[in-house]
Amino acid sequence: MDVMQFVPDLGTGFISGAIIGWGLKKALKIVIALISLYFLSILYLANLGVISINKDAFMGLLGNVESSIVSYGGQIVGLIHSISLGAGFTGGLLLGFKKG
Questions:
Q1: pLDDT 10s digits, 18-47
Q2: Does 1 map to a domain?
Q3: Residue 19: CB atoms within 10 Å
Q4: 3: burial class by Cβ within 10 Å (0-12, 13-18, 19+)?
Q5: Contact present, 92 and 15 (Cβ < 8 Å)
Q6: Is residue 67 domain-resident?
Q7: Which long-range contacts (CB under 8 A, 24 or more apart) does 14-17 make?
Q8: How far is it, in rounded angstroms, from Cα 21 to Cα 41?
Q9: Which of 9, 45, 51, 52 has the fewest Cβ atoms within 10 Å of its own Cβ atom?
Q10: Which structural domain range is residue 17 located in?
């Protein structure tokens, strides 16, 4: 078995991983900016008295979201462990996410 036959696969995986990681980080930045703008607008409207925020219901909603994330998080970790991504793709993804 010739090891050199795997080198193009590692390079292709690394390049595609780097591009996906870079794009993922850019997309996350945009999503976070939009969510922040939304929450700031809600707080501004609450400060003006246009809307009122039910703090008890809001805290209950945050608790429900937290429990959902915890329950689905375990399933996602199992899924990631069962999928073979490849060393080149993973390295490229990490580098692209760091540089993005």
A1: 888 888 889 999 999 999 999 899 989 999
A2: no
A3: 14
A4: exposed
A5: yes
A6: yes
A7: 14/88, 14/89, 14/91, 14/92, 14/95, 15/92, 16/89, 16/92, 17/88, 17/89, 17/90, 17/91, 17/92, 17/93, 17/94, 17/95, 17/96
A8: 30
A9: 52
A10: 10-99
- List C-alpha distances in Å: 35 to 31, 80, 85: 6, 27, 30
Residue 86 and residue 7: Cα distance in Å, rounded? 12
The answer to the question of residue 2 being in a domain is no
This model's pTM is above 0.85: no
Say if CB 79 and CB 2 are below 8 A apart. no
Residues belonging to the chain: 100
Tell me how far apart the 2 most distant CA atoms of the chain are, in Å.
73
pLDDT at 38: 93
**Total domain count for the chain?**
1
